[in-house]
Amino acid sequence: MDRERQSDTSDSETTDVRRINQQPGIREGRYDPNRFRLHFEKESREEVERRKKLAREKVLDQMLDKDLEVDISDIYPTEKGLEFPRRPPWNYGMNREELLRKEEKSYREYLNDLHSRNPPGSLSHFEHNLETWRQLWRVLEMSDVILLIVDIRHPVLQFPPALYHYITGELQKQVVVVLNKADLCPPPLVLAWTHYLQTQFPHLHCVCFTSHPGQPYSTVLQKKRMRKKGTCGWGHAGGPTHILKACQEITAGKVDLSSWEKKIQRDAVAMGPEGEQSEEGVDSVLVEHQSDVAMEMSSPSQELYKDGVLTLGCIGFPNVGKSSVLNSLVGRKVVSVSRTPGHTKYFQTYYLTPTVKLCDCPGLVFPSLVNKQLQILAGIYPVSQLQEPYSSVGYLCERTPFLSVLKLRHPSVEGPQHAPKGGEKEREQGPEHSWTAWDVCEAWAERRGYKTAKAARNDVYRAANSLLRLAVDGRLCLCLRPPAYNDQREQWESHPDLAEIIALQGRREEEGAGERDEEEEEGESSSEPEEERDRDADDDEDGDDEDEGFGHPAVKERKGPTSLTVNMFDVLRENECE
């Protein structure tokens, strides 16, 4: 087969700024659904073609564990002026139009200064939509405590030091960093990241969080998490109590949080043994939509805990799981969950109790020097909008054992693709062949049966998008490490706080190889419906898990492994992809 003729069905753009996630317009009402859509700088056609050619030619070299260590100063170096736009001074003597013009002028000056300090192509993708930055300003002004939500797999990518120093310094407010998706990382790594952030930012409060305790992925292609009995629904999320304790420490008795504590307890009790919601036990939550005028002319309050109410501002990059955290805190599904960056695009306030309310901010991307391929793997840039996904696939494969996980066969090997059986030699997977990113995409397209409509050639573009979605979801897991982690690994693996992280993740220390072996045996006789469900797991373009909302009954599935070792690297059993 002429491998140069494999189909590349990527799109093209002609504007300097790409406007991501176009939503259908609403005829009635003033709300514009596209007002807060992501605006990213567009890369030149020459750059896209250069990377595409490189993906065909560059042989992948497996990186060492040491290469996964990242320091936050490498992502946000102080000398590069990687600030975020600030709201200019204003007063009530200004009218609305005058205020907007002043904000626009200040924002243009911010962009000019940022680009003057950093040469073209050096900055990562970051938000160019002023409307979204305005939402950040309002949330910072209204809130008493800021919940900065990050993905535990790569927290330094999503923790801008400039934002932290602005909140704790100029605003004199406290920051609680929520290390979300804690179930996707090995417990020692979770501890290491917590210690690193607290060392770098001494006044920072760190909280680990997961919306899926005890619900691992049993296969790379599984769309829904395996649900254990009694662990379903938002009421069983691991972390709401830890956020409450951090807020109690910050408020120091200035706000009565007893009603919040009782709500968390009631939400957990209201959850039935099968994860079914009892409507009687769940408190109602008032949701308030802020009007544009109220946000634009709101005065920043210098008084904390006004009228005895604690206001929590939720801030985070796209796709860090911010909506899932909100749903867990509220105790029911009020924000739809999606893997699409920038899914939440409007300003809302949730009253948890009479003394606690949450302000939700749309996800936005701060400027940094992070590698753009790593940005894509972190879910910051929408996979479906990529013009050239192949270099990101190469970046992923160089940092994960992709051959053992995906069980691919090199495209140069003749014959039909099939999953190697236990007795076959490893040479069937082609370790003696040199792999490029294009080879991986072509092999995955062949394995999954992705073909173009007209010529029936392997659709490598669709295959590349499929692999990137697996990485974003955590089914093909890439976890960065803090500096010196590999040298101190034994220290973290024997740390006394390890048991607490294991409990938060819903794991059990005694679960080990015995249950893994039992699971492998069950995998040989897995039912056809389960295989079909896995087959299309990575084909969901938008990823809106609307059916995962609070109150849906648990889906009974076979018992899955929950060993201490993270289960993402060797979980694709031999009969899952045939």
Write a structural description.
The chain is of the alpha/beta class and 578 residues long. It folds into two domains: 41-70 and 371-411 and 433-477, Conserved Hypothetical Protein Ylqf, Chain: A, domain 2; 74-217 and 234-269 and 283-370 and 488-508, Rossmann fold. It has helices at residues 45-57, 72-75, 96-117, 130-142, 161-170, 187-200, 240-251, 258-270, 292-296, 322-330, 372-377, 390-397, 402-406, 437-448, 460-473, 489-493, 498-505, 513-524, 528-535; strands at residues 17-19, 39-41, 145-151, 174-180, 205-208, 286-289, 310-316, 348-353, 356-360. The strands form two sheets. It has a seven-stranded mixed beta sheet, sandwiched between helices. A two-stranded antiparallel sheet has the order 1-2. Strand 3 (145-151), helix 5 and strand 4 form a beta-alpha-beta unit. The two termini are 22 Å apart. The model is unreliable at 8-15, 27-31, 226-235, 291-295, 422-430 and 510-578 (pLDDT under 50).
How do the strands and helices of this protein lay out in sequence?
Layout: E1 17-19, E2 39-41, H1 45-57, H2 72-75, H3 96-117, H4 130-142, E3 145-151, H5 161-170, E4 174-180, H6 187-200, E5 205-208, H7 240-251, H8 258-270, E6 286-289, H9 292-296, E7 310-316, H10 322-330, E8 348-353, E9 356-360, H11 372-377, H12 390-397, H13 402-406, H14 437-448, H15 460-473, H16 489-493, H17 498-505, H18 513-524, H19 528-535
Parallel strand pairs: 3-4, 3-7, 4-5, 7-9
Antiparallel strand pairs: 1-2, 6-8, 8-9
